[in-house]
Amino acid sequence: MTSRPELHQQYDIIASLQPALHVPQNCNYENPDSLFRALMHPPHDVGGQHDVPVYYEEKEEEEWELNTYVTCEVLGWKGIWSAEERRRRADNDLGYTLYLGMPYYGRWIWSAARMLVDKKHISLTELLDKIAEVKSRHEKK
Amino acid sequence: MADKHSHAGDDHDHKAAPMVEEITDYEVLEIAVRELAIEHGLFTTEDHRKFTEWAESIGPAAGSRLVAKAWTDPAFKARLLKDGTEACKEVGVDWAEPTGVGTPSDYTNFRILEDTPTLHHVIVCTLCSCYPRPLLGMSPEWYRSTNYRRRLVRWPREVLAEFGLILPPEVEIRIEDSNQKCRFMVLPVRPQGTEKWTEQQLAAIVTRDCMIGVALPRPGRTADVHPVHEARRPVHSASEHGKAAE
Amino acid sequence: MKKNETLRTPSTPSRFKVGDRVQVRDMPNMFYTRTQNYVRGVTGTIAACTYKDLIPEDEAFNYDGRLEQYYIIRFRQKDLWEEYPFDNDTLQTEFPDRWLDPLETGQNRKK
């Protein structure tokens, strides 16, 4: 091992080589109480769960992240939603996989988009058309 | 905290911002949502600009000034302990800004947590990342992480040790899990050796980490040092987060 | 903030004051809560009365009307975590009135 970064990278990769015992699921007929409780548990309630020491990082803010923060707050300012609704959506409704897998501000903008569609401010088709249009605008010519 | 992760002059694996060509999915989604919201009259470009201006103006310097003033002015400290939100106005922070009724996420219920030689506070929001933005600016990435939020409430001394802060068992560590509408900041104990210092000198050693409670202020310590993950397309005119008042 | 329905129930009375011993209720958990798993069923002390506001389970769904007193509760870390080794450490967190049960002590119990 010639460098520390390579050692740390190896630690990360080796940590991901964990035994996994998957329980195949196909429309369970029943859930034991403890599993029901765990399934109903709001994902954002993480206090006391086990985790490992990590190197705590700062992160330089992306332009899109600042814009996301402002958009979400301005939507609150204008009465379209409240911060509490945002937290419900961005920290819970989206489920464990998206909660743990998406970037912090990714969940913010996802929940804003979902809220606008849910509350009929925009239609889903409008959103998807707009996304396609923004993408094509930025395509390399 | 000692400078255990220097960036100056070494060949540390620092990701230089790459030449950005492709737009990311999140960048696309952000633009789409903003443009649709404006097209549908939910808010105006001016609204967005005005709030952006406020977001870029906040930073930990205000918190540093608040602590320095509390250290040097006992009557102010008494007012701060009695009504935190109101006392902030004396250091130029109005929690009602920029909407007039507070930001949607930060509210207007600020409470200062006063440390003593036998009581040390440290703040977390286990449920999300509630943070006193008007006083400290944007929260650091690690504060938002599930890792910090999982561990601090149950293993506070271990987590603080990772920040370089070890306190004797006689000192009560009090974790504040900021889970509702109150917003908190730590008023650290004024360190020895600063008795004749000006407010400005004092503010310079009160860094953001001291006001969250993961560091103690001391003479000579004027910055929080953490590794920095650089942005691909950073905010151009962002204030420097994490710096104490000059 | 525009809401489709208002349920203008008067604010519920604030039952507790600083120093009262209270236990966090373990209400059923579905969709949303801000009452953490790790405090449920645990006894603490009222450290402060803060403000009256909507409860999070209502506000998150734009359900308007019921205002409750919020309190900051202080717990001993040893009461929250059975393996916790340090005697003096504490934790504070905040709840609206409905999440708390009064603890019957010799002083509180009606004769």
Number of separate domains of chain B: 2
Question: Pair with the most extensive interface?
Answer: A-B, 63 and 68 residues
CATH class annotation of chain C = Mainly Beta
Number of strands of chain B: 5
CATH first level of the largest domain in chain B: Alpha Beta
In quaternary terms, these chains amount to: heterotrimer
Order of helices and strands of chain C: EEHEHEE
Count of spatially separate domains of chain C: 1
CATH H-level homologous superfamily name of the largest domain in chain B: Nitrile hydratase alpha /Thiocyanate hydrolase gamma
Would you list the SSEs of chain B in sequence order as H and E? HHHHHEEHHHHEEHHE
Gyration radius from CA atoms of chain B, angstroms: 19 Å
What descriptive keywords fit this protein?
heterotrimer, A: 141 residues, mainly alpha, Cyclin A, domain 1, 58% helix, C: 111 residues, mainly beta, SH3 type barrels, five-stranded antiparallel beta sheet, 2 helices, 5 strands, globular, disordered N terminus, disordered C terminus
Structure in words:
The complex is a heterotrimer of chains A (141), B (246) and C (111). Chain A is built from seven helices and one strand. Chain A is mainly α and 141 residues long. Chain A has a domain at 62-141: Cyclin A, domain 1. The model of chain B is unreliable at 1-14 and 237-246 (pLDDT under 50). Chain B has a two-stranded parallel ribbon. Chain B has a two-stranded parallel sheet with strand order 2-3. Chain B folds into two domains: 25-54, no CATH class; 59-212, Nitrile hydratase alpha /Thiocyanate hydrolase gamma (Nitrile Hydratase, Chain A, Alpha-Beta Complex), CATH 3.90.330.10. The two termini of chain B are 19 Å apart. Chain B has helices at 25-39, 45-57, 61-72, 74-82, 84-88, 133-136, 141-144, 146-151, 156-162, 199-205, 208-212; strands at 109-114, 119-124, 172-177, 182-187, 228-229. Chain B is globular, with a radius of gyration of 19 Å. The radius of gyration of chain C is 16 Å and the shape is globular. Chain C has helices at residues 56-59, 77-80; strands at 21-24, 43-54, 67-76, 90-96, 100-102. Classes of the chains: A mainly alpha (141), B alpha/beta (246), C mainly beta (111). Chains in contact: A-B, A-C, B-C. At the A-B interface, strand 1, helix 3, helix 4, helix 6 and helix 7 of A face helix 1, helix 2, helix 7, helix 8 and strand 5 of B.
